[in-house]
Amino acid sequence: MAAKRATRKSNASKEELLKYYREMLLIRRFEEKAGQLYGMGLIGGFCHLYIGQEAVVVGLEACTEEGDKRITTYRDHGHMLACGMDPKGIMAELTGRSGGFSAGKGGSMHMFSAEKHFYGGHGIVGANVPLGAGLAFADKYKGNDRVTFTYFGDGAANQGQVYETYNMAELWMLPVVFVIENNQYAMGTAVKRATKSPSLWERGAAYGIAGEEVDGMDVLAVKAAGQKAIEHCRAGKGPYILEVMTYRYRGHSMSDPAKYRTRDEVQKMREERDAIEQVRKRLLEGDATEDELKAIDKEIKEIVNEAAEFSKESPEPDLAELWTDIYVDGSAPQNA
Amino acid sequence: MATEILMPALSPTMEEGTLAKWLVKEGDTVTSGDILAEIETDKATMEFEAVDEGIVGKILIEEGSEGVKVNTPIAIMVEEGESADNLSASAPAATAEPAPAAEAEAPASAAPAAPKAVVSLEPDYPEGTEMVSTTVREALRDAMAEEMRRDDTVFLMGEEVAQYQGAYKISQGLLDEFGDRRVVDTPITEHGFAGIGVGASWGGLRPIVEFMTFNFAMQAIDHIINSAAKTLYMSGGQMGSPIVFRGPNGAAARVGAQHSQDYAAWYASVPGLYVVQPFSAADAKGLLKTAIRDPNPVVFLENEILYGRAFDVPKLDDFTIPFGKARVWREGDDVTIVSWGIGMNYALEAADELAKEGISAEVIDMRTLRPLDIETVVRSVQKTNRCVTVEEAWPIASMSDHIGSEIMREAFDYLDAPVLKCTGKDVPMPYAANLEKLALTSTKEVIDAVKAVTYR
Questions:
Q1: Does a structural domain hold residue B106?
Q2: Residue A110, SS3?
Q3: Whole domain around residue A293: which residue ranges?
Q4: CATH number at residue B438
Q5: How far apart are CA A167 and CA A207, in angstroms?
Q6: Quick check: bond before B343 cis, omega within 30?
Q7: Can you tell me the distance from the alpha carbon of A120 to that of B391, in angstroms, rounded to the nearest whole number?
Q8: Domain of A257: which CATH number?
Q9: Interface size, chain A vs chain B, as Cβ–Cβ contacts under 8 Å
């Protein structure tokens, strides 16, 4: 298994490219708006923006079918938008309102959608990896051919439970795609300052798990790799690892002083590798027009503005909500 | 020089066993490593090897003998030319000190008569139900087997649960009946398999995750609390975790500090979890079945020393006990003794002793620690005006502390004395037999505490 950057370029149709353009743009504009609302004090606590990494989820979601599952870490807004969760419900959760996906009780890091098979939204680095394998365990147990995408970062890739999970996932041939979103920095620690491993996906070889490195700034390359991974899992060949090389333009969270990298580095990435720009360029090189793309920009802006409006207007949760959802039957235990 | 071969202790808690089969006969020459006999404990059948060479001079305990106490001479080895004819074993029962067990103080015979609950506010089963003597071990196994037959989404995972038949033999026979799809051996990776279990519970299954001991669950506590207990809340009610985490908890016997902690108060402090710590086999069965069916995560704390203990279990097709219902084992007027799990041993023994001195103790088994049936305790304290709590866990931030504060809040005006707690000592568990005994609570401590609160 030679480490090879996937460079497959499929001949994507205009329709397909427009779909990716629209979905990636939605994530970017949504996140920019979330950043604004945070600055205005409408969003509190931790807020981790996905700007720069849009091609990863959009490319991989393009491979999924109904019933496939996904689970990720706390940088989760993009994953939710990409799997079709309503932007209004996501933004309202960010503002801690009753209209949010967790009724205001989860926040930026903890949202779920049983309907869209989105299983969070987890704040403990690495913990979502066995959880994702557990979802895949359930599908294998039931004998269906669903696949779970388990996303985590380069930081989580050094957690012990990831390797416990690799071991069991291959041992039990679980249909799970481990997606390492390598955005180069675990909070402020560059990958090279946290490990001497030359690549993260290759660690899977120790457990017999196949995988590959993917250009995460190229949505078509991500889609192609995702297709291969999902087919591997659906065919009952066990787990697969994708190390998707990406880049986060914004800070780790909203309170990141960014002392660990230069402004030039970020700028260079934005100018030369930006995933949305790449698709935009391809579209314009084809038969798409500036007007067409502008219309999409406008449409996205409206969706995001509506979400922002909803997130401000949706009421705060009823005070009685403090005591609900602790146990399934809705009853708090005695003496709680 | 003739030497005695003694009945071996093959596990930390073994007190007696069955000498299933001799593989040598009198006159045989054996060398170190030869298998002498097969010995059956309540957990497993094990081969017993010679440690030295010699000739089997005399077999003292016939094969098939049951209830052979640890350290009883079972054979005599002689050297070449030596005769075993005029050798007799030193009086069997009086040989070496029996393996010091945690409850060494109790004169308890190895197979104590099953204590019977005299009263239950609301009986768990109809009057006149046929009762069958069952060990806690069998009761737990039966509960899992019944639920697995009832619901295909229930499965068991953990270390040594399948082929080994359970490190403590709790899952004996389950692999044969349900196969390896539903009885899953895991590698020794508690953190990882606990997380996989929680994920599987979100995926529509009802996992039973066995920890070989809850001491090892400390590796996995992040998933028990952050992943299982909190997700329903964090998801605004969308995603529950129907999962049971079970296994032995607390001290066994002579297993040292890292294998002897009682986690009751840790887990009982977590909103989103239910916590069960049963004493009797009937409760173990009825509560485990309830736990498996419950849509919430349940921490089910067992006790290794209780596994082999037999109690009456109602013979019913489907016997469950709801959470949050204490059981009154013994009615009394002078003091309320509140306990749960193995603490009930001390509580019931103390009550027997106290009765001889004319002190009438009401003994309550909490059974579930979250939800906690404080009403039953308060009602009792309103009658007795005094209360002593009994547990083996550490004293600080203990369940006893919580119960004491609840009694103070709910029944302050009824109290004639402070609520006293008998707990494990505030030390890591020592290995030495005498120190270990000292580190746990005791029947005497409970008696003394009762005398203190009754001013006797």
A1: no
A2: coil
A3: 5-312
A4: 3.40.50.920
A5: 6
A6: no
A7: 39
A8: 3.40.50.970
A9: 166
In this prediction, residues B25-53 reach a mean pLDDT of: 86
Q: Are B363 and B351 in contact (CB under 8 A)?
A: yes
With tokens 């059948």, the residue in question is: B45
Per-residue exposure over B259-273, b if at least 16 CB sit within 10 Å of its own CB, e if not: bbbbbbbbbbebebb
A76 shares contact with chain B (CB less than 8 Å)? no
Indicate the residue type of B381: V
Reply yes or no on whether the pLDDT at B412 is more than 60: yes
* Residue A336 half-sphere exposure toward CB, CA atoms < 13 A: 18
- Together in a domain, B63 and B164: no
Q: Residue B30's closest CA among B48, B45, B51, B9?
A: B51
Q: Are A134 and B196 in contact (CB under 8 A)?
A: yes
Looking at the structure, tell me whether residues B301 and B207 fall in a common domain: yes
Of A119, A243, A131, A111, nearest to A178 (Cα)? A243
Residue B16: CATH number of its domain: 2.40.50.100
Identify whether residues B274 and B406 lie together within a single domain.
Answer: no
If you ran DSSP here, which 8-state letter would residue B7 be given?
A: P
The amino acid present at A284, given as its one-letter code, is L
The predicted-structure confidence for B355-389, as pLDDT tens digits, reads as follows 999 999 999 999 999 999 999 999 999 999 999 99
pLDDT given at position B90: 52
Distance from CA of B300 to the nearest CA of A (A): 17
What residues of chain A, 129 to 158, have a C-beta less than 8 Å from chain B? 129-139, 141-142
What pLDDT score does B50 carry?
85
Q: Out of A71, A124, A138, name the one closest to residue B205 (CB).
A: A138
A325 lies in a domain?
no
CB contact under 8 A, B227 and A127: yes
For residues A183 and A249, give the distance between their C-alpha atoms in angstroms, rounded to a whole number.
Answer: 9
Q: Do A69 and B198 touch (CB under 8 A)?
A: no
ipTM: 0.93
Spatial neighbors of A263 by CB under 8 A, at least 6 apart, are none
Domain count, chain B: 3
Chain B residue with CA closest to A103: the answer is B236
CA distances (Å), origin B274, targets A23, B121, B277, B368: 42, 22, 10, 8
* Run of H or E including A295: helix A290-313
Range of the domain at B432: 327-453
- The angle formed by the CA atoms of residues A153, A158 and A159, to the nearest 5 degrees, is 95
Same domain for B204 and B146: yes
B367 and B438 share one domain: yes
Q: Residue B371, preceding bond cis, omega within 30 degrees? A: yes
B93: left (phi over 0), alpha (psi -120 to 50) or beta: alpha
pLDDT of residue B42: 75
A123 is a domain residue: yes
Domain count, chain A: 1
Examine residue A319 and state whether it is found in any structural domain, yes or no: no
Q: Which residues of B touch A122 (CB under 8 A)?
A: 227
Kindly identify which residue of chain A lies nearest to residue B196, measuring between CA atoms: A134
Question: Is B187 close to A168, i.e. CB distance below 8 A?
Answer: yes
Task: Check if B362 is active-site.
Answer: no
